[in-house]
Structure formats: structure tokens, C-alpha cells
UniProtKB/TrEMBL annotation:
It comes from Trichophyton violaceum. Residues 1-166 form the Protein kinase domain. This is Protein kinase domain-containing protein. Pfam families: Pkinase. GO terms for molecular function: ATP binding; protein serine/threonine kinase activity. SUPFAM superfamilies: Protein kinase-like (PK-like). PANTHER family: DUAL SPECIFICITY PROTEIN KINASE (PTHR24058). InterPro entries: Kinase-like_dom_sf, Prot_kinase_dom, Ser_Thr_dual-spec_kinase. Keywords: ATP-binding, Kinase, Nucleotide-binding, Serine/threonine-protein kinase, Transferase. The keyword Iron does not apply.
Length: 166
């Protein structure tokens, strides 16, 4: 998929509704890419926080790719993918709810992530299931959360974002 693919796509037309302005900021926790493979500590705004950060496994650039994937969804829909993790009400943010929503979208986390996460036992049982499965919404899927696209473009967008937040 290079420039020729993009050129063939042509004009995709207007979105069904205007979703707002894009703003990139908050570089205070930036680290060099040529340093250690994994970093420790809490980074990222709660709503964009990758599972490896929540579970304190250590993170690398993949946590940034995760955030970008979630942001792309947010830009398309004009609201946060993880609605119960509202960035305007961080005092109400719960890691447990965030991980439940992630699990609803992607299924249980990989065993490697669970084994290496320092906080895994707070949220997951030894068999990889959530401690509190009642937090998983029934209909929380990519297909059900995207309203501003349909058909083939929706399928392609979901496929693209799923690769970013796997």
C-alpha cells in the first residue's frame, strides 16, 4: 500500500459530521527511540493508555502506536472510543473499567503481557480472565462503535486500527 494505493482511493467525500480539530501535545515524557527497549512508569492520558502501561509491564514505541490507533478512532467518531474513560473526568477513571473495555474489543490479553505485568493480579485471574467480568459490555465491538463509516471503508478502517492496538 503505497502512494499509488492512496491515489486510487480518490476523494472519500465529506464525513457524516464534523469531528473537530486535531491537536498534538504533551511531549514531557518523551524518550529517545535508541534507548532501552522497555521503559517503566505511567505515561499517556488515561483514555489513550495502552494495556502494557496499565499493567506495568514496561513499554516501548508500541504504546505510542496504541495511542495513535485509539486517537484515529476518536477523530473519526468525534468522541472517545473508551467512553467510560472520560478524559474530562479523570477523577472517575478506573484501570479496571479501561481493561474491561479493551478486553471486550480485543479479547483476553496475550499471556506474555499478563505474565510480565506487575499489576496483572489486580485485574486478571491466573487463567487470563478478568477479575470482574461484569464490567465487559455486551455489544462493545469495533463494528458497533463506528457510525461515521459504512461498508468496505468501515471494514478497512477497523482492520487498520485493530493492527495498531493489538
Amino acid at each position: 500500500m503505497g502512494a499509488s494505493y492512496i491515489a486510487l482511493a480518490g476523494n472519500l467525500g465529506p464525513l457524516k459530521r464534523i469531528t473537530g480539530l486535531i491537536e498534538i501535545l504533551d511531549f514531557d515524557l518523551a524518550v529517545r527511540g535508541d534507548g532501552p527497549v522497555n521503559h517503566d512508569g505511567c505515561i499517556q492520558a488515561e483514555v489513550y493508555r495502552a494495556p502494557e502501561v496499565v499493567l506495568d509491564k514496561g513499554y516501548s514505541y508500541s504504546a505510542d502506536i496504541w495511542s495513535l490507533g485509539v486517537m484515529l478512532w476518536d477523530f473519526l467518531e468525534g468522541r472517545t472510543l473508551f467512553q467510560d474513560v472520560d478524559p474530562l473526568h479523570v477523577e472517575e477513571y478506573y484501570d479496571e473499567q479501561h481493561l474491561a473495555l479493551i478486553t471486550a474489543l480485543l479479547g483476553p490479553p496475550p499471556k506474555d503481557l499478563l505474565d510480565k505485568g506487575k499489576r496483572t493480579s489486580m485485574f486478571y485471574k491466573s487463567d487470563g480472565t478478568l477479575q470482574n467480568p461484569s464490567l465487559i459490555p455486551e455489544d462493545f465491538t469495533f463494528q458497533n462503535t463506528i457510525c461515521n463509516m459504512s461498508g468496505e471503508w468501515k471494514r478497512r478502517f477497523i482492520n487498520f486500527v485493530q493492527r495498531m492496538i493489538k
